[in-house]
Amino acid sequence: MSEVVFVDSAGRETRVSAEDGETLMAVAVRSGIDGIVAQCGGALACGTCHCYIDEAHLDLLPLPSEEEADMIEFVMEPKANSRLSCQILMNGVTDGMRVVIPDSQH
Q: What is the pTM of this model?
């Protein structure tokens, strides 16, 4: 079990619990986080679960796959810390991770 902090465009924080092995996208959808739409349900076919991972945790995560990196090229407002939340599995390393939802998704 870990905790994730979602931050919206106004800077409001929402802290939620996540089970190990659950995707960050599933955590966001289950928790009603605005801006994580997840239209493809985690099939790596859209980009509506795009988020920014706080620098403190970014290097602790596995690198994006080639497919994820390709999809990120097509999202609005991509940054160096852009990830698709459907591709991030929760575990002990992700405990306390801060996740910012892009302005364009609100």
A: 0.94
